[in-house]
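FIELD: query
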Amino acid sequence: MNICVFLSAADLDDRYTVPAREFAELLGRGGHTLVWGGSESGLMKVVADGVQESGGRLVGVSVDFLAAKARTNADEMVIAKDLAERKALLLEKSDAIVIMVGGTGTLDEATEILELKKHGKHTKPVVLLNTAGFYDGLHEQFRRMEDEGFLPLPLTELVFFAEEGVGALAYLEESAGLR
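FIELD: result
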């Protein structure tokens, strides 16, 4: 399965890097392909290293202004002209999406993917990996949106919240009929 992961390119502490590495190793050992932003820095590097060292493939989609930071030994690397094209290519090349910890770029990617799913532009499973409670506030906001009628479909049909990588991968594999 080609699994797109949206996540930070920042250098983060162990409460984020250790679970990210564990999730990456699960992907690699499972024979999955990581589709990601292509960066050779921060948490993006941690996950790419873990997938590659565990036997998985790497498909990167970088963007023109970040091409100098792109991983050189990915199985495939595409350079998009801008962030909009990058997001479209990441979605196109993936069978499922996992949203890990990140900043405004990750949040932008997450909300666009969820908005597209809400409107039926894709039916791919989306998992929000809530490492160390990072997305507790966002989860609460989504529940409020659902409760107050802002979501046209149940939150559970839009996104699955997982506390650990093993739960995230199990959900994706079940959604794809692999379990």
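FIELD: remark
The helical segments are 14-29, 42-53, 83-92, 104-118, 136-147, 155-158, 165-175.
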